[in-house]
Write a structure and sequence with these properties.
Elements lengths: L11 E5 L4 E3 L7 E16 L2 E8 L4 E2 L13 E14 H10 L1 H27 L2 H16 L3 E2 L3 H8 L3 H13 L3 E4 L2 E4 L2 H7 L2 H20 L4
Length: about 220
């Protein structure tokens, strides 16, 4: 976020450690996190089950939607891949937003993209098959970390997508046979990104398009030096 310089004095650099919890559901929003690297999983937890609704990576903001209404989170946000971020107290961020409309607009556009991401994920879970959903998740996660290597396990993919582990393994093996990915222990390497995108359902294009529109709109507002 290019507006970070305007709020620099309020930002605290932190390390995002694997499995650390940034937000808990039904808890007060204390901090907003501007992610520089790593991957954060936004999920809903109910009766012992987990449903991931979005992933947040570099240039993403954990807590953005809650700045525009309410002080509690409906999601749990957990660090999936370690990295770095800057955090700011939510009360400071709200005050700055009231004083600087460009920062408020920037965060609003990002929050709209993230909200669409969550809603589209819900639709995807009931409308699309295992292969399309898995390909879509791999593409979105790769975009979020800006890398083709994803240190994720079959067990993790099974839990957050709500699919049987055997089905995840079967699909990943098929992707590997087709040359789309390469599997090592605990790591997936995307080999043929364009081909993997063609395997993904329309949700990938809808979600990535929403974020792209947000970035274009923001860029259009920035002055040319």
């Amino acid at each position: 976020m290019q507006d970070l310089a305007a709020i620099g004095e309020f930002l605290e650099p932190i390390v995002l450690r694997e499995l650390s919890v940034l937000q808990e559901p039904k808890k007060q929003l204390d901090y907003v996190y501007f992610v520089e690297s790593g991957l954060v999983s936004m999920r809903i937890i109910a009766e012992g089950s987990i449903l991931e609704t979005a992933v947040i990576g570099y240039r993403g903001v954990v807590g953005a939607p809650f700045l525009f209404g309410g002080y509690g989170s409906t999601h749990q946000s957990v660090v999936l891949l370690p990295g770095r971020a800057h955090r700011i107290r939510a009360e400071d961020m709200r005050r700055i937003m009231s004083e600087r409309s460009e920062i408020r607009d920037h965060l609003s556009r990002y929050a709209q993209g993230l909200s669409l991401h969550c809603a589209q994920t819900g639709l995807c879970g009931v409308r699309h098959d295992r292969e399309k959903r898995l390909a879509s998740w791999l593409c979105l996660a790769s975009d979020a970390v800006d890398a083709s290597v994803l240190p994720v396990t079959h067990d993790y993919l099974s839990s957050i997508l709500g699919l049987r582990r055997a089905g995840i393994t079967e699909t990943l093996n098929r992707f590997e046979d087709e040359g789309l990915i390469r599997k090592n222990r605990g790591v997936l390497q995307i080999e043929e990104r364009k081909s993997l995108e063609r395997k993904a359902c329309c949700c990938y294009r809808v979600i990535s398009g929403a974020y792209a529109v947000s970035e274009v709109a923001i860029a259009a507002r920035e002055p040319i030096n």
